[in-house]
Structure formats: C-alpha cells, structure tokens
Amino acid sequence: MIEVKNISKSFEGQMVLQDISTTFEKGKTNLIIGQSGSGKTVLKCCIGLLEPDKGEVVFDGNNFSGLKEKNKKKIRQEMGVLFQGGALFDSYTVEENVMFPLNMFTKMTLEEKHNRVNEVLKHVNIINANNKYPSEISGGMIKRVAIARAIALNPKYLFCDEPNSGLDPKTAELIDQLISQLTESFDMTTVINTHDMNSVLQIGEKVAYIHKGELWWEGDKHNILNTDNTELNDFVFATELTRRVKR
Q: Which of 84, 86, 181, 220 is the most buried (most CB within 10 A)?
C-alpha cells in the first residue's frame, strides 16, 4: 500500500496539489483523474522525481519523502514505471530494452537475464520480437515492451503515466486489461494517471478525482457514474464527449 499524506506542490506560484491525502491499495488498479498535470504531479512525487513542498509519501510504512537520496534506492528498485509513450531506447532492441533494468540493478548471469526477459515478454504476449527495434514494431507493441521492462524486476509498485496515450480504442482496451491482469497476478500496487474514461470504467478499482488541486472525490468504477458530485459529473461528461468526437 502507498499512502499519500497531505502533499502539496506548486510551480512558479501556481498550486497544482493542495493538501492531498489518499491511499493506493495493494493488488488493485488505482487511477488518478482530473485537471491536466495534477495526476502526473502525484506520480512524480510518488517515484521521487519531484519533492512535495509539504507532506509525505509512505510505502508500506516507510516514509519515502523523508529519506536521503542514497536511502531511496532500495524502494526505487521495487518500483516499475511505464512512461507516457513507452520511452523505449531507440537504439536498443526489444530484448536490450527489457534487459536494461536487470543490467542496472541485478547481478544475474547473462543466461538468467535472457530467461527473465523471455518470461516477462511472454507475460505481455510478445513472442519472436527480441531482436526488433522500436521503429520496427507498432505503438501497441511498444507499450507492451515498456510494460515488460517495468515488471522485469518483479516490482511491488507499478506506476503508469497515460498508458493509452496515442493508441486506438481497441489497443487501449487491450493495454488496460493487460495492466489489470498483471496487477492481480503480481499482487502489485498499481497507480495510473489517465484521462481516458474508458479506462476508468473498465479497470478503475480505486479512482481519485483531483479538481483545482484538491482531492474532490474518491470511489470506484461502479459508483462514478452515480455520484452527485457536480464537478466530477462535468469532468466525466466532457471527457467522454471528447473521446467520442476523436473516434
């Protein structure tokens, strides 16, 4: 479980997060929705790319925000991160991309690394693509390779930034289901920043809505459409309408 306790963050005097407190539950897909930039800021505070102006992020009882940089390494090794767009290395093959964290953080033999790479690629339904480069595979495959890389170290925590960005609706749904299945199989605490209401309605086991920098609503995919929260209803309607127009 990840606990976010009273975190605030501003940029150049503009408040993005204001006294946000919530929990992200183990074994569940926890989604953050809301104004542009708010969910991404929560994610960056959680993984340590940003320090909150105040408040703390706690991983299973360990106050990550209060640790010195060298002491954050152990918790970071337990994180998997899926960046928007996949962020694969263009000059690396699929196999080399997935192997990258194993080279960085483990003392595995080369054979063990190859075995682990093939294992996680199988988890994301990619076969016989080890020697291909990112330019030779589809956008959906790039996301799946990026997911394989994110879970290569068998993380306790998985962070996903707009995992469906740039994908067609059918591929986006497949990525959602893959993340949901892996979360359950690996019993990870998964946190997803998204603007895709289809993702919310498909896999939103815990949903946090941030409005004007504040935590405005929490719930799940079953009750998000039945809330009397005016701002959330406006956000859901506007987001869904935009998605349908783009389709």
A: 86
